[in-house]
Amino acid sequence: MNTWSEIAEIQPLTSKILTNSIQKSRISHAYLIQGERGTGKEAIARLLAKVLFCENVIDRDPCNNCLTCKRIDSGNHPDIHWVEPDGLSIKKEQIDELQKEFKYSGLESAKKVYIIKDADTLTTNAANRILKFLEEPNIETTAVMLTENSQSILSTIRSRCQILDLQPLNPVQFQKQLLDSGVTEGNGALVAALTNNLDEAIKLSEDEWFAQARKLVVQLVEMFIVKPDEVYLSIHNQWLVHFKERSQLEQGLDLLLLAFKDILYYHIEYEALVLYYKQDEGLEKAALFFSQPKLLSILQSILQAKRKLKQNVHPTLVMEQLTLHIQR
């Protein structure tokens, strides 16, 4: 998204607020942009940075063609600093390094911008460092913090920012975008349940690795029913081999969650909500095997497994514990 009109298609209110500020030359020294994953937080931050640095702004939009705009798109502009979690959090040392950078004037202008992704992961010490930045704002410095949960951020930080709440994407509109991009209806409904990012959803629908991941989930559920004694071996020989990276395993758990949700929906006759088992006879078999209370317990255990991954528990241990819980 390279223009405010494109932003307005998914975030009309935020687009209007920012374009009005640009027109009146009243851009805030600090913004806190809150919204679900895929709602356009990074695109808005990048576009705002372009407006601040582009020398050919036309009617509130950057030109998107000059060297400055291209360097911002590639993440190589020396006066725009992106900060993101190092592991599970943004640490004090990262903010200390940022502060060192800001002691010097901009390399190419008097302006500087810093954008903090997942700002809710700031450690207490890092948050206090950022607070000092915000309490003593430089007129040429603009801070943009991005988060899915602003309530996890210090109230003293929130009070010093202009807060922009992004609205959730319209799922019907999103699936229409996927259909218009050539994604089949069945695939579109499934990937839309995993991500709100159009490019990521299209990539998933075309990815062979993802197609194999879907098959492995169906096979795993099937094994719990017909070959329970072989599940543990399958976890080690197939599942953990395919889902090698932690992010891949998270996606595998998301798919497993959707599969078991489908079985529950079948139980309660909400088949219109079924995503994973479209036109699959295995759904009825699974519904006969897993009771509603058991399904609720399994869904909770999958969510717990996802939390353990976030807490850096070893993936093998996470899957072994999940397998044992489902088999009980």
From TrEMBL:
Residues in AAA+ ATPase domain copies: 27-169
One Pfam family this sequence matches: DNA_pol3_delta2
GO biological process, one term: DNA-templated DNA replication
SUPFAM superfamilies noted in UniProt: P-loop containing nucleoside triphosphate hydrolases (SSF52540)
GO molecular function, one term: 3'-5' exonuclease activity
Annotated transmembrane regions: none
Coiled-coil intervals: none
Recorded superkingdom: Bacteria
Name by which UniProt lists this protein: DNA polymerase III subunit delta
Native source organism of the sequence: Virgibacillus necropolis
